[in-house]
Amino acid sequence: MMKTVTINQQTMPAVGIGTWHMGDSAASHKDEVAAIQAAINAGAVAIDTAEMYGNGRSERLVGEAIHPFDRQQLFLIDKVLPSNASHARLEQSLDRSLNLVGTDYFDLYLLHWRSGTIPLAETVDELERMQAKGKIKSWGVSNFDTSDLEELWQLPAGDHCAANEDLYNLDERGIEFDLIPWQAHHQLPLIAYSPLAEADTISGQLSHNKLLKELASNHHASVYQVMLAWTIRNGNVLTIPKAGQVQHALDNVKAGEITFSEDELAALTQAFPKPKRKQSLAII
Fold first, then answer.
1. Which residue in the list 53, 109, 168, 193 is annotated as catalytic?
2. Which pTM was predicted?
3. Backbone dihedral region of 116: left (phi > 0), alpha (psi from -120 to 50 degrees) or beta?
4. The predicted structure's pLDDT at residue 206
């Protein structure tokens, strides 16, 4: 049975589509469009992009890929750069992204990371204004740690935040110490970025890990599907792997059907330990 997640009262499959590093190459363009479309046809609903990704090239790719589909059946996520997250620039930035994707609204619009100069309150005010205008259905944040969310919740509309997107994979479990519990307590969904793409380089070829290969065999799956399924094992998480090929995209979506036993989860925790202390937020 496909695992699901609910964001802004909309329930969808817990495996979505990430598009970081997509749209940059003419040689791979056709394959990338086909991969996104294959994932949608297989049941994926959420598509994550950002104005930063290829300076709009990812957004344009998403727009092309979703063109044949019913827009209302999709959950589109975009992100504004912190340098554009001001009263003066956010709406202009949002309009540019909407135009590139070819849609009238985003289901979720995220502050990509905190600005060092623009007050968080100013950004929240502007996000609220965009939601009131109907250009976004909800808003959230990305690369926020627990202290950032606590500060956000102190703002008048801060708790309107619909999701937080952070790096999360088997090799980067730091947010489990206090951030994931905080979000669970406040019923704030997590969007897990780079659940696969960076994992091999971080830990040194996780694809050859003995335990992961054993679990993959147990579930008639690939190591990558096991890694992906692990990120959504507890619910309240949308995971957004990238796929540039059709078969990879189909495999990603199917990973949402994997359920681990308690023994398997215990073995994974032994091999990839939970954090025992607070760690700096991992960002790539």
1. 53
2. 0.96
3. alpha
4. 82
User: Is 112 marked as binding a ligand?
Assistant: yes
The sign of the dihedral angle between the CA atoms of 150, 95, 100, 8 is positive
Q: How far is CA 231 from the centre of its chain?
A: 11
Which H or E run contains 80? strand 75-80
Domains of the chain: 10-271 (3.20.20.100)
3-state helix, strand, coil in the chain (%, to 5): 45, 15, 40
- The per-residue pLDDT for range 153-208, each reduced to its tens digit, is 999 999 999 999 999 999 899 999 999 999 999 999 999 999 985 544 445 578 78
Residue 275 CA to residue 278 CA, distance in Å, equals: 7
Residue written as token pair 């495996």: 15
Confirm whether 53 is a catalytic residue: yes
